[in-house]
Amino acid sequence: MQSRTAGRTGSVIGACAAAVAIATVAASVLLGAPGAAAATLFGDDFEDGDAAGWSKSGGSWSVVTDGSRAYRQSGTSADARAVAGAAWTGQSVQARVKPVAFNGPGRHVAVLARAQNTSSYYYLGLGDAGTVVLGKRSGGSPATLDSAAAAVGTGTWYTLRLEVFGTTLRGFVDGVEVVSATDSAFASGRAGLATHYASAVFDDVLVSDVGGPTDPPTGPTDPPTTPPPGTCASPGSPTGFASVNAWGQNGTTGGAGGPVVEADTAAELLSAIGQSGPLTVCVRGMITVPAGMHNVTSDKTILGVGSTAGISGGGLNIGLPADDAITSPPADAVHNVIIRNLLFRNASDDSVNVQMFSHHVWIDHNDFADGYDGLLDIKRGSSYVTVSWNHTHDHTKNMLLGHDDDNDAQDAGRLKVTYHHNWFDRTPQRNPRVRFGEPVHVFNNYYVYNTDTGVACQADAGCLVEGNYFERVEEPVTNSYAGPGGRCVARNNVFVDSGVPDCGGTVQEASAYYAYTLDDPNTVKATVTAGAGVGRI
């Protein structure tokens, strides 16, 4: 994939306040109508098998398979550079980088910003001697502006991010700022990759024009238990059903207006999400929670810091205990919950479960994988939910909407859910599997190699499936997958090496509930792979 026009912003952040600094700047372009102008300037994950658009100097560059397709420079006897893009001013250049070999001391592999050409640029490099180096080159040898010790090894992937805004240069490794400097040598230039007498593999290049986080607060080494108000609030509002005024709730705001707390242990996290009242919970790092489902109360924002925050071992439950006798929304139904920018791994049951008439829930920019049952299930009368910009992979039972063919008493007329700009990445089934909900709006998602089915619409559900990109999906849309049939309308989708929709009937229009704008489906693959998942809000 190569995306050289507006997509979605990438970011790696090292502190809770930092998460909001970048998101606040980008909120107006990231969280409005789909297809609106955004901050992504360039992206390339090399999955198209070529490196068109890259200008090279030195070395031996080729697209290889290293887990996924990536860009490798295999020579170690000289400098090698590859640059792409335009003469941007402020730019944030991020890539995954794996050093392969250094041929001596003082060597590095790097990402570049404001490259004038292949011999004049700023760089952020991983050095052979266990260092991170921020420097510049202007026709001659590299000159160091700042450096820091780091555990650097060959054969390991690192995420490098070089931010250059005004005269300020900042370097991040795996979401943590480690070096910085001030320099005015280059006012604008292209982005790039480099190896200085070394070889390396590069992947997932993303360039954005949104500035990075502000400097962390001075004071004690340990962050405060309660950051200053507003420093970790989730900005903006969702597109889709979570934005609708219904059931006594106007849109989805999560913990806005309440305190902000930080959690980096299971005890802190579980205590915070179970409190009453509005609260924003900043999750730092990967937290292993006890097995089982852990309840989230109303008016909560659970926001991951950077690109490495998440939950493993258990899952989040948004909803009251299951009770078949309740057939209409209770007054105390859980509502107004936002879950963003989190990794979910190795859940003992569902990764996230929304149930029992919970409503106004926004699940956005998360990375789901390696669960036990469902990655994200929505059921038992829940409604007014938006699922957006998530990356799901390495799992079979992906997303279920409506848990049983006989649950019409709770589900009929409810389960109004929007799925947009998600990356259903080799997840065989339930993408989603839908019962009863109408309309279920599935738009501008990227499907790749879903071996069972894409959207399965059954049990009298009504699914509107539009503007999606299906690649190598044998049965992309169906209303006759299993059990009672449903209704589906499929329009304006792209099918690449895929089957055709098996659809029939009429479905309510999503536009009767909310405004939205479709992206050109031909651009969806590039936009979604550049913007879905964590570290990109």
Polypeptide structure, described:
With 537 residues, this protein is mainly β. Helix content is 7%, strand content 42%. It has two domains: 2-208, Exo-inulinase, domain 1 (Jelly Rolls, Sandwich); 244-531, Single-stranded right-handed beta-helix, Pectin lyase-like (Pectate Lyase C-like, 3 Solenoid), CATH 2.160.20. The chain is built from four helices and 45 strands. A ten-stranded parallel beta sheet has the order 19-20-23-26-29-32-35-38-41-44, with helices on one face. Strand 19, helix 2 and strand 20 form a beta-alpha-beta unit.
Strand order of the largest sheet: 19-20-23-26-29-32-35-38-41-44
Describe the oligomeric state of these chains in a short phrase: single chain
Report the helical percentage: under 10%
Uncertain residue segments: 1-38, 211-231
Structural class: mainly beta
Strand fraction equals: 35-45%
Strand count, sense and barrel status of the largest sheet are: 10 strands, parallel
Indicate the radius of gyration in whole angstroms: 23 Å
Number of domains: 2
| Alpha-carbon distance between the two ends | 20 Å
Count of strand segments: 45
> What is the fold named in CATH at topology level of the largest domain?
Pectate Lyase C-like
CATH architecture of the largest domain: 3 Solenoid
Q: How confident is the prediction overall: mean pLDDT?
A: 86
Write the layout of secondary structure elements.
Elements: E1 2-3, H1 16-30, E2 40-44, E3 55-57, E4 61-66, E5 68-73, E6 79-88, E7 91-102, E8 108-117, E9 120-127, E10 131-138, E11 143-149, E12 158-165, E13 168-173, E14 176-182, E15 189-196, E16 198-208, E17 245-246, E18 249-250, E19 260-263, H2 266-273, E20 279-283, E21 286-288, E22 293-295, E23 300-304, E24 310-312, E25 315-318, E26 335-340, E27 343-345, E28 352-354, E29 359-364, E30 367-369, E31 376-378, E32 383-388, E33 391-393, E34 399-401, H3 408-411, E35 417-420, E36 423-425, E37 433-435, E38 440-443, E39 446-448, E40 455-458, E41 462-466, E42 469-471, E43 477-478, E44 487-491, E45 494-496, H4 524-531
Parallel strand pairs: 19-20, 20-23, 21-24, 22-25, 23-26, 24-27, 25-28, 26-29, 27-30, 28-31, 29-32, 30-33, 31-34, 32-35, 33-36, 34-37, 35-38, 36-39, 37-40, 38-41, 39-42, 40-43, 41-44, 42-45
Antiparallel strand pairs: 1-2, 2-16, 3-6, 4-5, 5-16, 6-15, 7-12, 7-16, 8-9, 8-15, 9-10, 10-11, 12-13, 13-14, 17-18
